[in-house]
Write a structure and sequence with these properties.
Helix 2 packs parallel to helix 3 and helix 6 crosses helix 8. This protein has nine helices and twelve strands. It is of the alpha/beta class.
């Protein structure tokens, strides 16, 4: 999942970025309201963490513009403005939660996870054939056998399973799992897909991760794969 942190104080922004990345999220940082709105208009975020005291505009203006979008991400306000009036105003103007600085990172992370669960129509447990993924406990199993994945491997697999049957380009995978733009040259997605296949496909007769020529990758169950590529009809014996 991809998060946007709108925070002009570099020390806090770096602290949040490191902590959230350690929890398995891709993180972009916007130091101004203008940069934040540019990010929101150019990428799909699962959550925005918004400071109110920005150098170029009030964070409430950023919140209002995000809420004016037809489909906008959940917004967690993270601000030193902790007065009752500020909190009420933030929530009334469309924020999904409000946390006052200073804060404990573990509490903020719990609120982030709660908002993501609330905003995700997809289930907390994902299933493709005999492969299961628990989004909350971050556990993966195939045919009842537990599979240990690195954080980025888990992020790629979760993104693919949330979009099962849908071809995903390398650009889409990088932008949702890494906090970087795809430059068209890196083979990082291919390397991680090989790692994933080694863990969830190689030891099993049915392969779930499919290569979509000219696009990227897709995960789907054997029934759907058979529908896409039916066996040729057998010739009648005379």
């Amino acid at each position: 999942m991809r998060l946007l942190v709108v925070e002009d104080e570099r020390r806090i922004a770096d602290f949040l970025s490191r902590g959230l990345q350690g929890a398995g999220y891709a993180v972009d940082i916007a130091p101004t309201g203008t940069a934040a709105l540019d990010c929101v208009h150019s990428a799909d975020y699962d959550l925005v963490i918004l400071d109110l005291m920005l150098p170029d505009m009030d964070g409430m203006q950023v919140l209002e513009k995000i809420r004016n979008r037809q489909i906008g991400p959940p917004v967690l306000i993270l601000s030193a403005r902790g007065g009752l009036d500020d909190r009420v105003k933030g929530l009334e103007q469309g924020a999904d939660d409000y946390l006052v600085k200073p804060f404990a990172f573990v509490e903020m992370l719990a609120r982030v996870r709660a908002l993501l669960r609330r905003g995700q129509p997809a289930p907390e447990k994902l299933q493709v054939a005999d492969l299961s993924l628990d989004c909350i406990r971050r556990k993966v199993a195939r045919a009842g056998e537990a599979i240990d994945l690195a954080p980025k491997e888990f992020g790629i697999l979760e993104y693919m399973m949330r979009n099962k049957g849908r071809p995903l380009s390398r650009t889409m995978i990088v932008e949702h799992v890494w906090d970087m733009d795809y430059d068209g040259l890196t083979n990082i997605v291919d390397v991680y897909i090989r790692h994933l296949r080694g863990k969830i496909d190689d030891r099993f007769p049915v392969k779930l991760i499919q290569t979509v020529r000219g696009i990227g990758y897709m995960i789907e169950g054997p029934d759907k794969a058979a529908e896409r590529h039916p066996e040729p009809a057998a010739e009648h014996q005379v």
